[in-house]
Specification:
Elements (H helix, E strand, L loop, with lengths): L8 H13 L2 H8 L3 H15 L4 E4 L2 E4 L1 H24 L6 E6 L1 H8 L3 H5 L6 E6 L13 E6 L8 E7 L2 E6 L1 H6 L6 H5 L3 E2 L5 H9 L16 H9 L4 E5 H10 L3 E2 L5 E2 L2 E7 L6 H15 L1
Parallel strand pairs: 3-4, 3-5, 8-9
Antiparallel strand pairs: 1-2, 5-12, 6-12, 7-9, 7-10, 7-11
Length: about 300
């Protein structure tokens, strides 16, 4: 019996990720491609099948009835492929898969990864900078490092706070010299601010700082904290940063703290499955992270 022509495997991967994440952008982050590429794969898959698999819902996507049924089967198929791959692959060095928010991975962890991967452990480290969250139950990662105020522990996970850093606005010395008014809350509220994925962080910071006047926030959006910080170093405006990410820049004078504050807006937290929390690899990862972030 001739097997029917199958859809593109790449398109199926994109569909499976979108169905699981509920967002084209989150699926793109996981697959390390742009959201436009994911959207194109979805369109091609639906066209080849002749059926609608997703529909718009709010700011994201939801599966149709046909999509839910197809997604369940496709997810099961990928799980079977993953198990088959693990069973046939020759035994290699242990690999520790870590998903981490990009700013922390780029500015603090990358330089010290050899401490985790080198002797005596000799692990292979897969550090994936992403804003997406892995499915720990399905083994997409061994652990993830997030920045959040609270963690939902209903999925059988444990979260441990690593550090709760102070948050404050930073700018280059040259930018502050050109616009000295940003050293006051009213002046800062009128400045060209640098945002990450939205203006929410700045809105929260002004509220915590006690600024009660209406604020119309302006400025570019760069999606990731390390990009916002780099833009501030280049003199493009004022970024909201924390002491974990900009400690070296403050010491070197590349950035200055515009308005001193003692505000906190979340913590870096390590998340892993409850049943794996005391495994040697997770224990070693926790100890290493605490050492790096305490430095």
């Amino acid at each position: 019996m001739t097997r029917p022509r199958l859809p593109s495997l790449i398109a199926l991967r994109a569909f499976e990720a979108v169905g699981r994440k509920g967002s084209v952008r989150a699926a793109g982050d996981e697959l390390a491609v742009s959201h436009t590429v994911v959207s194109r794969h979805l369109q091609n898959l639906q066209r080849s099948l002749g059926v609608a698999l997703v529909r718009a819902e709010g700011r994201g996507l939801a599966l149709t009835d046909a999509g839910r049924q197809f997604h369940a089967e496709v997810s099961q198929a990928f799980d079977i492929i993953a198990r088959a791959t693990m069973s046939v692959r020759p035994v290699a060095r242990p690999t520790l898969n870590i998903w981490c928010i990009p700013g922390l991975a780029n500015r603090r962890l990358l330089a010290r990864l050899p401490e985790l991967s080198g002797p005596p452990r000799n692990w292979d480290i897969n550090l994936q900078p992403t804003l997406a969250h892995p499915d720990l139950q399905r083994g997409e990662a061994d652990a993830e490092i997030v920045y959040a105020e609270a963690i939902d522990r209903s999925g059988g996970v444990i979260a441990e706070e690593l550090v709760c850093p102070r948050v404050f606005p930073v700018a280059s010395p040259a930018y502050l010299a050109r616009f000295p008014a940003i050293a006051t809350l009213p002046g800062l509220a009128r400045a060209s601010l640098i945002h990450e994925e939205s203006t929410a962080q700045w809105e929260q910071w002004f509220e915590l700082a006690g600024y009660r006047e209406p604020v119309t926030l302006r400025g570019q959006r760069l999606w990731h904290a390390h990009l916002a910080i780099e833009a501030a170093r280049f003199g493009q405006g004022v970024a909201l940063a924390n002491e974990v990410l900009v400690a070296d820049d403050l010491r070197s004078g590349a950035l200055v703290e515009v308005i001193p504050s003692a505000l906190h807006m979340g913590a870096y937290q390590l998340v892993a499955l409850r049943e794996r929390w005391d495994e040697p690899a997770i224990v070693a990862l926790r100890a290493w992270l605490k050492n790096v972030l305490a430095a």
